[in-house]
């Protein structure tokens, strides 16, 4: 039986960072993962360039039943702290858009940095390791039965993530441990995920697969995002849709403004005055992709007329169609393609300063396994770093 000060389950973003920080502060840490490689999601993230944080991190960018929970950790370990660390490793980065910071070169650099940080902290890392059971003894030790070994520690950190992308090792392990120790787990659902559409609409829009447009998208609860929308062969995607999917509940609609940068009414009036014989289709193609205009015309949403023939009632109808398109998604693509999992371990059960379970001394939850989910754009990794850092401080405090 091997004894450690702390055992961290999950060598993803949160687990590696927490193990490294605690190790560097002097704790003897064991980091476990059932996968072949550490940081598998990091490697896939940001199209292989890892959007590792965001310059505009703020608590309002996180969804949780307890919106105050994330504030303390985000304030104590900020995006600037992580940017500093990335700088120390000489990793070049750039802002892509909306404060989203990506590696210039490769996400592998972030994983290599975290591995190096773990080595600096003398962390013992065991990959391809199945955890068969977790028990807490009367002496307040956590005893983990692994395939081929038994390991013990006074502190157990669960950093096993959510359910998104089972192909990258996602599992319900963290929720099961939470339930085993009597913690409430809130219902989970896929977030940052494409929408699927009902049959007739899907078939009608399939010709648009690959078309991307700037948009403003609004959920029924009033949440708004201004980002690009992408038509796909399964439905709707792109950053606008991924963002709003986290605020969408089954059965609800979303409203889409396909012309957020244009006052369509004024544009049509102006064009009518200048070119009365111009077709409405060609006029709209000045503002929207031609394929989209043609498709909407075939669907009868855009009348086949010259501008001079467009009466004010039809113009109003057209403006409504293009700036307030109401779509009722059939569903989402689910955990298979979702970037995150909403819900999870109820944060009311945890200390926001240490991430320790209030009623189970020595048991900690960090990262995505808990009910804190960020927007698209580096917010989720920042939560992984910040919650891991807060936990690591607590691991070495006592
Ligand atoms: P994870 O990174 O999921 O790590 C959990 C670890 O636990 C995994 O290594 C897993 O193998 C291990 N594990 C699970 N079950 C067990 C078990 N039973 N036994 C042992 N080990 C186990 N966020 C951003 O901020 N920016 C991005 O660019 C970005 N891109 C993304 C791209 C993709 C394709 C995906 C899927 C997600 C992306 N995200 C991004 C979200 C981000 O990856 C997660 O929020 C983040 O990885 C969560 O970190 P975590 O450490 O909590 O969990």
UniProtKB/TrEMBL annotation:
Q: Which Pfam families match?
A: HI0933_like, HI0933_like_1st
Span of domain RsdA/BaiN/AoA(So)-like insert: 189-340
Where on the tree of life does the source sit, at the highest rank? Answer: Bacteria
| RsdA/BaiN/AoA(So)-like Rossmann fold-like domain sequence ranges | 5-393
Entry-linked SUPFAM superfamilies: FAD/NAD(P)-binding domain, HI0933 insert domain-like
Presence of keyword Amino-acid biosynthesis: no
Q: Which Gene3D superfamilies does this UniProt record tie to the protein? A: FAD/NAD(P)-binding domain, HI0933 insert domain-like, Translation factors
| Alphabetized UniProt keyword annotations | FAD, Flavoprotein
Q: Which cofactor does it need?
A: FAD
Record-linked InterPro entries = BaiN-like, BaiN-like_dom_sf, FAD/NAD-bd_sf, RsdA/BaiN/AoA(So)-like_dom, RsdA/BaiN/AoA(So)_Rossmann
NCBIfam families assigned: aminoacetone oxidase family FAD-binding enzyme
Q: Specify the protein name.
A: NAD(P)/FAD-dependent oxidoreductase
Name the species this protein comes from.
Answer: Scandinavium lactucae
């Amino acid at each position: 039986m091997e004894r450690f000060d702390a055992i961290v389950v999950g060598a993803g973003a949160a687990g590696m960072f927490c193990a490294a920080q605690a190790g560097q502060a002097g704790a003897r840490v064991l980091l476990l993962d059932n996968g072949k490689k550490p940081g598998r999601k990091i490697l896939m993230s940001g199209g292989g360039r890892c959007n590792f944080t965001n310059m505009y991190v703020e608590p309002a960018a996180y969804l949780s039943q307890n919106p105050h929970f994330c504030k303390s950790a985000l304030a104590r370990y900020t995006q600037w702290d992580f940017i500093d660390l990335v700088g120390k490793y000489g990793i070049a980065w750039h802002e892509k858009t909306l404060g989203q910071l990506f590696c210039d070169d490769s996400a592998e650099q972030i994983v290599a940095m975290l591995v190096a940080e773990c080595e600096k902290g003398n962390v013992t890392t065991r990959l391809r390791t199945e955890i068969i059971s977790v028990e807490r003894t009367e002496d307040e030790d956590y005893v983990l039965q692994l395939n081929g070994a038994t390991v013990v520690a006074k502190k157990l950190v669960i950093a096993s993530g959510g359910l998104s992308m089972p192909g990258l090792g996602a599992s319900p392990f963290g929720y099961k441990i939470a339930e085993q120790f009597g913690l409430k787990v809130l219902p989970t659902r896929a977030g940052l995920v494409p929408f699927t559409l009902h049959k007739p609409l899907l078939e009608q829009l399939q010709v648009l697969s690959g078309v991307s447009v700037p948009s403003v998208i609004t959920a029924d609860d009033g949440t708004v995002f201004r980002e690009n929308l992408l038509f796909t062969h399964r439905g709707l995607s792109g950053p606008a849709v991924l963002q709003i999917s986290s605020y969408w509940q089954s059965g609800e609609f979303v409203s889409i403004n396909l012309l957020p940068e244009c006052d369509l009414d004024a544009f049509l009036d102006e064009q009518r005055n200048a070119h009365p014989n111009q077709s409405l289709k060609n006029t709209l193609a000045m503002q929207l992709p031609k394929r989209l205009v043609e498709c909407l015309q075939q669907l009868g949403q855009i009348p086949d007329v010259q501008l001079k023939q467009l009466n004010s009632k039809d113009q109003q109808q057209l403006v409504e169609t293009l700036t307030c398109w109401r779509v009722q998604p059939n569903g989402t693509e689910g955990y298979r393609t979702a970037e995150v999992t909403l819900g999870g371990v109820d944060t009311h059960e945890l200390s926001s300063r240490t991430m320790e379970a209030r009623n189970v001394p020595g048991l900690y939850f960090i990262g995505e396994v808990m009910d804190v989910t960020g927007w698209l754009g580096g917010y989720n990794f920042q939560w992984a770093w910040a919650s891991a850092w807060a936990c690591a401080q607590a691991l070495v405090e006592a």
